[in-house]
């Protein structure tokens, strides 16, 4: 039913765009014949708005992958560097939450480990919405921040790293069999808000898939049983995402991006000092308004990386920035 609805929406959109195009072209011809400039201007403005709608829908056609329409998990991990990187990880988490809010998507926090002084060590979000995985899938990788540290009394410039990892929620129609002999399940006490119950029960669950080394964890619910069920779903999704990457012949590059949260693996740099610039190191797309980007204005970066991925080329090499 979901696939049918998507096809219906697509067909109706094309028909609507075609009809609007014909109507406005006709209005322009009529206005020119009658010498009515106001009608011509109105129709031209409508055509401009129509072209923007077409451009937006053209991007939607890039989201045709097997799992692109699915909901998605998004993990954020701080890199080396203690408080600096943990604060940056929290900024990234906020950025993606803001992006999801802009697109009317629902965000659930499945687990979060707070930093010692500020920020977070790691967190996992469940983002629900149309094409959530399709939009976010190219965001996996290391993100680099350059700024004057608010934690440095000498106001020196610091470089921090944090990583994002995106994988789709597995559909009910996809069967993934994981032998229990291949996993290790640990329980522990959840951290963060939650009251006295959090501190007295081992409700949080961590599952390690031994052959692949994949680790997932959930502490959202008070019930260990519910957290265990969610963690199993996350593990199936991670394994499914790995298989999708292999089909795209990108497994080696993907694994390389996970090996180290630091130099040489970043996909995007966010410079707040000494100048203002966000630059995607894969596509060359730039923004001179980092605050807008950190507030969730990511569509331009996502569209460019999706286009590059669909075209199948790595694109021109882009120089790193200080």
Automatic annotation (TrEMBL):
Residues 189-205 form the Prokaryotic-type class I peptide chain release factors domain. One of its GO terms (molecular function) is translation release factor activity, codon specific. The keyword ATP-binding does not apply. Its main location: cytoplasm. The modification N5-methylglutamine is found at residue 196. GO terms for cellular component: cytoplasm. Methylated by PrmC. Methylation increases the termination efficiency of RF2. It is found in: Cytoplasm. Pfam families: PCRF, RF-1. Keywords: Cytoplasm, Methylation, Protein biosynthesis. Coiled coil: none annotated. It comes from the Bacteria. SMART domains: PCRF. The keyword Cytoplasm applies. Belongs to the prokaryotic/mitochondrial release factor family. Peptide chain release factor 2 directs the termination of translation in response to the peptide chain termination codons UGA and UAA. PANTHER family: CLASS I PEPTIDE CHAIN RELEASE FACTOR (PTHR43116:SF3), PEPTIDE CHAIN RELEASE FACTOR 2 (PTHR43116). HAMAP family: Rel_fac_2. This is Peptide chain release factor 2. It comes from Nitratireductor indicus C115.
